[in-house]
């Protein structure tokens, strides 16, 4: 079922969903199931599965030269989606990136998803690889998420890269995209960021999932700006509870989001990460209650591979 259909059928009730990471290469899928199992009590209509592109490493050879190696540390997105749908009978939503994909790769990826009965995808540009400062598209790939959305929408209309195909079958993906209440790190301003978000909606995206935020007013202001610009699709808030003291520095640096002073001071006063984890849970519970009261369609939690703190939050909200 499509995300938009889940929202329509909820009749105004806020739904619970979450996102998981594929396990590191070499680990089995049991670690995924162990984290999903406790959350199924709260009846998620869908589960997002992130996609992780290749990384470049350099290995020193005996002669002192460096050999470049391509490594994918978290493979398995498509297989995990299939396993989730089979085991739990809920929709699994894979992320699909511009980075690391040619247009042909993208088309074949989407065909596989369609054959598996997957109804939704989240279309993202993706980040630059660690060895590069700025994002660099594949030679025959997409530079922007709006271009990726357009290709997916083309397939939904039965338009393939090979225009000579006869009697081609149309897909029917519901397309989600990312939104940034505090703007994308590369955007010069929030207004310009919303301008490009609008292009993704015009290209065919049907819902938005936001980057994490810790101040609900940032989300409310973002939604208001989007509505003023004519963006009418559902805007799903993405939440993540802080779990370690280290994240005070890591989250603003990696995700370019602000942390409220009150939250920072509460974490600073904690004696250990166990106390930090509890602060993160309580802060996220209060965020969640306010968002539910505001009538958001879905609360989407970034689990980052661990579910115990998400479970503690869901127990209070759902």
TrEMBL record:
Its cofactor is FAD. SUPFAM superfamilies: FAD-linked oxidoreductase (SSF51730). It catalyses: (6S)-5-methyl-5,6,7,8-tetrahydrofolate + NAD(+) = (6R)-5,10-methylene-5,6,7,8-tetrahydrofolate + NADH + H(+). GO terms for cellular component: cytosol. It comes from the Bacteria. Pathway: Amino-acid biosynthesis; L-methionine biosynthesis via de novo pathway; One-carbon metabolism; tetrahydrofolate interconversion. It holds the Pfam family MTHFR. InterPro entries: FAD-linked_oxidoreductase-like (IPR029041), Mehydrof_redctse-like (IPR003171), MTHF_reductase_bac (IPR004620). It is an enzyme of class 1 (oxidoreductase). Keywords: Amino-acid biosynthesis, FAD, Flavoprotein, Methionine biosynthesis, NAD, Oxidoreductase. Its EC number is 1.5.1.54. Coiled coil: none annotated. Gene3D superfamilies: 3.20.20.220. GO terms for biological process: methionine biosynthetic process; tetrahydrofolate interconversion. GO terms for molecular function: FAD binding; methylenetetrahydrofolate reductase (NADH) activity. NCBIfam families: fadh2 (TIGR00676). Belongs to the methylenetetrahydrofolate reductase family. This is Methylenetetrahydrofolate reductase.
């Amino acid at each position: 079922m499509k995300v938009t259909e889940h929202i329509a059928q909820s009749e105004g009730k806020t739904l619970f969903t979450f996102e998981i990471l594929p396990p590191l290469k070499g680990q089995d899928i049991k670690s995924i199931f162990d984290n999903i199992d406790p959350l199924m009590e709260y009846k998620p209509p869908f589960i997002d599965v992130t996609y992780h592109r290749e990384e470049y490493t350099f290995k020193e050879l005996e002669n002192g030269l460096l050999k470049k190696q391509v490594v994918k540390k978290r493979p398995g997105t498509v297989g995990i989606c299939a396993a989730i749908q089979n085991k739990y009978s809920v929709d699994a939503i894979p992320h699909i990136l511009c980075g690391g994909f040619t247009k042909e790769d993208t088309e074949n990826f989407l065909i596989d998803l369609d054959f598996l009965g997957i109804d939704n995808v989240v279309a993202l540009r993706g980040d630059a690889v660690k060895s590069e400062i700025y994002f660099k598209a594949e030679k025959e790939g997409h530079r922007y998420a709006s271009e990726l959305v357009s290709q997916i929408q083309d397939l939904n209309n039965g338009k393939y890269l090979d225009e000579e195909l006869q009697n081609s079958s149309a897909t029917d993906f519901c397309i989600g995209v990312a939104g940034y209440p505090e703007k994308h790190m590369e955007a010069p301003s929030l207004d310009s960021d919303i301008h490009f978000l609008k292009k993704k909606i015009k290209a065919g995206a049907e819902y938005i999932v936001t980057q994490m935020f810790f101040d609900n007013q940032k989300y409310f202001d973002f939604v208001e700006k989007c509505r003023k610009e004519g963006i009418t699709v559902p805007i799903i808030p993405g939440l993540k509870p802080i779990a370690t003291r280290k994240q005070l520095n890591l989250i603003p640096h990696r995700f370019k989001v602000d942390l409220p002073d009150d939250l920072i001071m509460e974490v600073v006063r904690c004696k250990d990460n166990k106390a930090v984890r509890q602060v993160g849970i309580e802060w996220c519970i209060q965020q969640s209650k306010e968002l539910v009261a505001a009538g958001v369609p879905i609360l989407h939690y970034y689990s980052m591979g661990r579910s115990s703190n998400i479970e503690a939050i869901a127990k209070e909200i759902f």
